[in-house]
Each structure stands twice: as C-alpha cells, then as structure tokens.
Amino acid sequence: MNGSASGNRFRGVYAIPPTPFDDDGELDERSLRRVVEFCVMAGAHGIVAPVNASEAIILTDAERLRVAEIVVEQTAGRVPVVIGVSGISTAASVLYTRHAAQIGADAVIAMPPYVKHPPASEIPDFYAAVARAGQGLPVWIQNNLGPVGTSMSPELLARMLRDIPEVAFIKEESEYPTQVISQVQALAGDDLQGIMGGMGGRFLLEEYRRGACGTMPASEVADALVLVWNALDEGDEARARELHTQLLPMLNYEALYTYAIYKEVLVKRGIIASSRSRVPGAPVLDAENHREIDALLKQIGPLLTMGMHPKINV
Amino acid sequence: MNGSASGNRFRGVYAIPPTPFDDDGELDERSLRRVVEFCVMAGAHGIVAPVNASEAIILTDAERLRVAEIVVEQTAGRVPVVIGVSGISTAASVLYTRHAAQIGADAVIAMPPYVKHPPASEIPDFYAAVARAGQGLPVWIQNNLGPVGTSMSPELLARMLRDIPEVAFIKEESEYPTQVISQVQALAGDDLQGIMGGMGGRFLLEEYRRGACGTMPASEVADALVLVWNALDEGDEARARELHTQLLPMLNYEALYTYAIYKEVLVKRGIIASSRSRVPGAPVLDAENHREIDALLKQIGPLLTMGMHPKINV
Amino acid sequence: MNGSASGNRFRGVYAIPPTPFDDDGELDERSLRRVVEFCVMAGAHGIVAPVNASEAIILTDAERLRVAEIVVEQTAGRVPVVIGVSGISTAASVLYTRHAAQIGADAVIAMPPYVKHPPASEIPDFYAAVARAGQGLPVWIQNNLGPVGTSMSPELLARMLRDIPEVAFIKEESEYPTQVISQVQALAGDDLQGIMGGMGGRFLLEEYRRGACGTMPASEVADALVLVWNALDEGDEARARELHTQLLPMLNYEALYTYAIYKEVLVKRGIIASSRSRVPGAPVLDAENHREIDALLKQIGPLLTMGMHPKINV
Amino acid sequence: MNGSASGNRFRGVYAIPPTPFDDDGELDERSLRRVVEFCVMAGAHGIVAPVNASEAIILTDAERLRVAEIVVEQTAGRVPVVIGVSGISTAASVLYTRHAAQIGADAVIAMPPYVKHPPASEIPDFYAAVARAGQGLPVWIQNNLGPVGTSMSPELLARMLRDIPEVAFIKEESEYPTQVISQVQALAGDDLQGIMGGMGGRFLLEEYRRGACGTMPASEVADALVLVWNALDEGDEARARELHTQLLPMLNYEALYTYAIYKEVLVKRGIIASSRSRVPGAPVLDAENHREIDALLKQIGPLLTMGMHPKINV
To answer: ipTM more than 0.85?
Structure first.
C-alpha cells in the first residue's frame, strides 16, 4: 500500500462535522445540515460522523441514528460518508452499523467499546461483529488513546486487517502515531487499503510522507486543511509546509479547547447557530479565548478558501 | 435520619437482578422475569435495575427501557422498584428517567455520566435534570468509585440533598464507604431520607450500625442476605454477624468474579438459563471456579431459604 | 510444579510487616523490629518487606534500604526474607536489589516501575536487570493491578520464567488471580518454582487447591493465617475453610481500610506504637471503625495463637 | 499581580535541561553541564530542574540531588535556578527541598506526590511541609494533569497562595490552562507574585496577554523561545506571533515525541552526547522521525540565535 498512490478508494481530508445543539441541548438539524454542506463545498474529500469530535459519546441511540441519516442525506453522494459506530458495547456498534448500511453509508469507523474496554483478545470478535452487521460495508479501525479509545498494537491491527475482509482501513491516533502509520503498513502490506492520520491534522506532513492516504480532522477550518492536502497531493511539500505552519496555531488551539473551538469557530463563520456542547466538563470560553480565536482566524484568513463567512444554501 | 428507625420509605435488601442474555447475546426476557420473581419470593424488600450488576453499561437504549418495563411489570407493585438511569450523558439519563416515571417505577437511581465524567461543579445540574425528568419520582444518588462511578464528597452530596427536593436517598460505595455513611447523615440531617450500602453487602453490619436503611446487592443469594437483614432488624446483631460470616466467602467470590458469579449461581440454582455476560473482559469461569462455587453454595446451603433450587412460576 | 508438594524452597505464609512511623512521620525502628519479631514468633514461614502493605511507595531510598536492613537483621535467618525492590525506575530497583544481595536477603520481589509503567515489550529487560543486580538471588515477579501494579499476561510471565534463570517465583494478584495461578503453572511447567497468592489471603483456599505454595498477606493477624495454612498443609481442607471463614470478616475489613487496619490492629495488639500512615489519602479511622475492629478481633480471638497481646522481647 | 509589569522576581523563559545519560544509563554530568551552559548562553532567564522534562520521575534520590548540585554549580548565579522537588511522598519532597536550600537554589517547584495522589484536603499540608523545609525559599506550585500531576482548582491554589507565605508562584498546565492563568490571578491578587505557563510554550502568546510572567519549556530550542519572549516583552506582539508560528511545528513535535525530541535535538546541535531516555515507554525514533526533525530544524534555523551548533566551553 502506498498512500501517495492515486488509487485509494478513500483519500484526502475527511472532515468531521460537530453535532450542533440548540440552547435546550436538542439536536439542531439545520445547523448540522449546514456544516455538512460547508464541508462538501469546502472541498472535503469525505465526511465522517458521528465520532469523537461530534460528541458521539453523549448522544442517545436515537440521536446517533438521526445524525447519521442527516449526514448521509445532506452529503447526497457527492463525497463518501463514513459513519461512526463506536459505542458502549458490541450490541450498540452493531445497531449503528446495521443502520449505516441501510441508509447508504460508504463505510463505518469504530473504536472498541469504551465504558469497559475489551482486552486485546476480545477485540477481533468486536470488529468481526461490526463487519457482519455492515453486510459488506468497509470497516475502519480507529486506533486511539484512552480513556475513550483503546490503543491497539500494530500487530493486532495487522492481524485483523488480514482476517476480517471488510476491515481494510485505519485511522491512527494512538501513542507515537506517525510511527504506527509506518509500522502498520509494513506489517499489513496489501491487507491495508488505506490509513489516515488524526490528531486534528497537526502532524499531516509527516503522516503523508509515511504513506497516509488522508486525515480525519474536525471541520471548522476544513477549507484550509483541504488547501494543505491539495498542495501535498500536487507534490509541493514546501508549499504544504508553509500553509500548514500558518494553520498550526489554530489547530493547536483546537487541540486545547476541543469542542468549544470546533463549534465556536463555526459560529463565528456563520455556519452553525450555537457553540453549546453537551460533553461533561467541556470548556466554556471566556473573553480572552474569544480574542485569541479572532487573532487566529485573522492569521489564517488567506487559507479560508470559502471566505470567513461562507454562503451556504441550507 | 436514623436508618434504624422504622419509618423509612425504602428499607431492607434491595436486590439487583442481572440482565440475562441468551446464547446470541439477546435479552432473555423469561429469565429476567424469573430472577425478578425469585427476588420478590426471597423476601427482597425492593428491586433495583438495570444498574452496574445488571450490565447496564453495555445495554442499548432500547434494551434499557425494555429491562425496566419487565422489572416493573413482573414486580407488580409487591415491593418498590428503583430503576437505574445512569448513562453516558444527561440526555440519556433524562430519557431513562422519563420512561421510568411513565411505567410506574417507585424511584430512580443514578451515577453521573460515565464516559466523560462531569467535574463536581456540573454534578448538581445533572441530578436536577434527572429530578425534573422524574416528575416527582424520588431520586437516589449512587456514590461510586471510578472508572464507571464518580466519587462525590459528603459535602457535595449534602448540598444536593438540600437543594433538590426529589434527591433524598443515597447508595454509598465510594472510598471508605462506611465512614461516608456517617458523614453524609451528619451533614444532611433531615434532607436525607435514607442511605443504603453497596459493596455486595460485605460490610452490612457496620453500615447498619452507622444508620444505613438497607443494602443494594446482586441477587443470586438474595434469600440469604434477607436473612441477615432481618436478624439485624430484629435487633439480634450476634445472630446477624454469625449468618453474615457464613455468607461472606460467597460474597467475596462474587466481588472477585462479578458478573460470572451473579449469573452462574443463578444458573446453578435453576433460576436463569445462561451465565453469558456481554461486558468486555468479563471473566469466563474454569473448572476450578465451578468447584469453588459448589463448595461455597454448600457452605451457605442453610441460609438459602428458598432452597438451592427454588420453584418459580414464571 | 505443584504447590502442594513439600519441596518448595519458599512455602507458607510470608507475612508483610508494615513500616511503622512515629508521630513525626519518621521510621520507628523499634516498632519495625517488634512486628518482624511478632511475625517470626507467630509462625510465619517467611518475611516480605518493604512492599505495598509496607507503604514502600512513599519511602525515600535511604528509608527503603534501612527497612530492608532491619528486617534482615531482626529475622536473623530464622525464616527466609524476601526484600521488596519495586521502585520508580529500573535504576531504583537495581539499587535496592544490589543492597538486598549485600545484606543477605534470600530473594527479592518486584513489580515493574510504577510512575510511568513500561509496555509489555520492555518488561523482560526490567526483570533481567533486577536479576543481574541480585547476583544470583531468586527473583519474584509481583503481578498486580494498576495504578501501582502492572498487570502481566500469563504468557509474558511464562516467557520471563523461561528466559531469566533467577526469575522463578510469582506473587499473583492481577485480575482473576486464582485463574492466573492455574494458567501460569500450565504454561511455565518446571520454569516456575513457586507461586503465591496475595489479596490479603482472602482467596487462600482456592489458591491452595490450584497449586499455590503460599500467600503473602499483611501481618496483623499472621498467627491466624498461619493456622489456616497449617490446616491446609495437614490436608484438612474442611478445618481450613472453617478457620478461614471465621477470619474473613477481618481480612475484608483490612481490604477496605488497608494501611489503617494493618497498623491499628498491631497497635491494639501492643506490637507497634502508632498507626500513622504516610500514604496520601490513607484512611483515618473514626470511633465506629474502632468499634468494628474490636468486634472483629473478638470474633477471631480463638485464632490469634499468639494471644491478643503477644509478649515480644524487642 | 500583572505579568506584563517589570518587577517580577522570576520572569521570562525558564528553560528545563533534560537529564542526559550515557549508554549505560548513568548520569552524564558533562552533558548536563553543557546543556545548562547552553541555556544560560542562549539567554534563558532562569533554569528549572530536575522536573518532568528532566525525567525526574525515574531518578534515584542520589541522582536527584546530584543533578540539582550540578545545575546550581554550572549556572553559578548568572540566572535564577528553580529546583524541582516533586517526589513520591512528602518525605521525598522535603528531602529534596532541604538539599536545594543548602546548595543555594533560588526557589523550588513541586507537584503533589504522584504514586498515590493526595486528595485536595491534604495538599495544603504538603506545600506547607515543603515551605518549611525550604527555610524561606520561594515555592512554586506546579499545576499539572495526571497521571503524574495532580490537578488543583484555582480556589485551592489561591487558598495556598494566601495561607503559606513562601508559596507565591504557579506553573500552570492543568486542563484549560490559559483560562486558569486568568482565574488564579483574579482570585489570588497580590498573594500571587508570578505565574508561568508550561505546555512547551505552545500557548505562550495568550498566556502572556493573560498576565503570565514567563514560561517553563524544555531547552532544546531555548534560544528560539527567548527570541519570542523578548519580542513580547518589547511589546511587539505581531513579531512575537510571527516567530512563534514559525517555531510551533517544532514545539508540537516535541509534544508528541517528548523525551526523544528534547534530547535528540540537543544531540543534533552538538550539545549533549546521547539521546537515551530512561523513562519506561519512551519513544525510540525511526528514520522518518529524524527526517522530520531535520526539516523542522531547517525551518527554524533563523530563530536559533546560538546557531545550529553552538560553541560551548564546558
């Protein structure tokens, strides 16, 4: 497998829309449609939801399924949609996966169950169950640190890539993730059809050089990340590094204040209505945070190809 | 509040039925009804489900609601039913609580959300939301260690007991739980209408002496625990201690092998059909474990007032 | 290997004296000598220190070495001494092990480093370094749950038993420990020269039946545990179970209030001077705890072969 | 307190030298002297060691004290030295603090004990003991996330700043650290004489604007960070942001591969002899990592005021 090759089924910036809520904490469907639309218009090569950056860990089952439906519907086949099916148990992930298959998703992505985490010996059965539920849908393994993720060794990943036909893709963001990208490719060979980086795209250049076929970041500056990716894919690493460096302070701020940044930037850009998060302990921004976001947005202004306030017809 | 007084609305052994599954991992409704029936016939003073010992952390939302319905239906008002409404988010707990109110539960019990745990400052809002959703239902706070539970200080517990009228009961199993039972009573006074112990009943005698109005254990030897409780309530501490000591090796084995013991003992007693657990990493018993369970069951034979193989008409 | 066989080099109750402090938190050497003497007089078959129950995790290096010296000196060859050499790094464990070899210890016991825990791939190097530092001293692996312990698989244990000649003994108290006792024996065969249980002796009967050659408990009721062990070794399992059941409420209370019980019982028995603990968050007993300890001591009075207040000439 | 004011006793970039080891894992004293010398020559406004970035968690007590001595000796009063005294217990921190006072350190910095972490109620006693041991030395509180750090609320920090005269400084790197910098200043007023940021300097601009009087980063690009700080202190935020953005990819890489980057960059710059780390699980760099470091060093070349290969006379 070589991420730099052109034949990948899934390739590029796979943006993760957040799950917008209204002031009562209810799902804001219109804002969700608008942010999906923004991602597609911004040139994202695919859409991934609901996953960690979508606050999937606090959605009820009904909300999970509704988010998936809206995302598939709004994307309308323009780019691939990968539905997040991580959950509290195999049964939950199977439920989400069956639904994803029914509504026409292009793939699913899962971490192992995350209230009690399975030991390594039980993880292949989990992914096999997800694969069966998907009835042929490609399955992405998300390799992620705890406490929500379950870190899996390159050897375990390679074994599942070999043994479960639908399991052919990895999103890698465990410890020392850029190294793992190399290790999994070396171990899995052709059993691996694509590996993407995570970590908000903060290590995208090295991931690309190591063979990653894309990245799955949050969506608030998806247009800027697409710009970086396209420079990479045009072979202009110097230009990519320059753009990436310019973008990095914003990506870092996102890493620090997470949900609040994913959403507040989208609010400031006029894409979603509220930055409310439902995750326990989510940060609440103060005036100085807002000043910093504004400074960072100004700094990356030239990279926001959709403009600071994109026009979205939803 | 004095747990030894007779006026408690909730008092005694509140048994927790497990959630039985069939060999495909599907909810085995008949076995669930049978274990609920066993608990009532065994003299349990109340029923609590689905909570930790019911594998609530791996049930889908639909399964959670179905378990609650069956438990309320099968109990049929003979003893109070406390529905477990802990979940991954306030929204999930609110969903379960509304349903509990609709189906006629007598109370709900909740830990704070458990994928990401709220900081102390956000916990009162969580319980207030549960209380509102219950439309007057009494609310139990379950004070429990991580990684699933969220340990709350006696001060925080007392503040919520004071500020949220429906919050009037505690199940205590945090660090140094017998001390906390005393501390919460001292701080909360009449705002606390009842506090029960947990920890499988292993510290029941001291909890009773400190004012606990009951205990919420698993159900596989509910008849034996009722015997201990009744001795306590008849004022015969010496007899209670003797019975409790005889029972303790079984309670300890349950603490070590958890779900496997809750269920396997019920299988051996002919009450449920399968000991299958769906919790990741749940123990799988070997031949020597079975030998030990048999030895322990023999040891506590005289305490099993329902007989080793109770006759249950469900 | 068969724990029931008589040929074991280390066999029986290996008692762990606590590290007594005076009211300023300084090492109380006389009390330490007295509790070591108590253990030997009580019939303990060996002494283990400083380990978890000795608050080893909060001792300075100088204190660690001093405790080891006193324990070896006071035991004076009457029974084997196993020196605890777990520490914050390989360098620390090597330091303690070299010293143990110099002062004439009979073996050392170690968990992997515990501030940052090594991944499984680095653990054999740790034990190999300890083995080298011991210059021939037998090495015990302590298999223990986090956050202080590092849980190791039976496969990893067996590999180290095979590859590192000095590593020939296990203290097992990871998840599902009685099963692991069987699994390690099956995998390691003759590479394993002895495996002891931990968990305060609460599962001693099953451990014995599974082939354990002993147990490493705290010391405050060492005389009672020796009684149970000797019944087992005399082949009288029924008697052993009866004694063990009588003792279990005390062992459970010890499991709940840990350091406070290890020490307070020794204070009540007149063996050490103060129950002060230096471990952060260690419990402070209240009046009701004292009442419970007194009740438990009364219950096990007949098992305290040294008498409630043993006469110790130190 | 206002970090932008000029009167701070401690102010600017307080660089943290790593603890260099030779190939046997022994302390490499010459390399340590050279990196201290580099920091001073690079314009660092102070030196901090041994702390997290110095692998303090795996040093024996003797090594801790030796590192402290060398750092004080080599710095020779040219800039203030803050000795790290975090340890496994109050006794350990007291030991290190007494020694720091004896050897002429300018201050000490401590996290609470980190094998078992104290509950909030015990933390003031810990810092009071450190303060007493310092005999007047200023004490910094390091507010840091787990598992090694203990996160303390702004309220608790303010209370200790008020109640313990020597405690007058904070290094802040808990959750949402830039917000905490504002919150502590608001709560503590004049009781706080200085607060520095951590997190490798990745959020330095916002920290400065919020009143931080400095930052405590690792040392491998100390010259570049001094450049950023000086631009800030000259009031040229635009220039500072430009420099900081240029530097950020390297700071991020350091955040991902930690010890390996702290040391390998210093090796590549000819300052220390080996990049060996003794922390369990520390990353081992592969060829692609080296390529990335080289690219990053090239990118920040103009910011390395000491030159890529500084001449150091030690």
So the answer is: yes
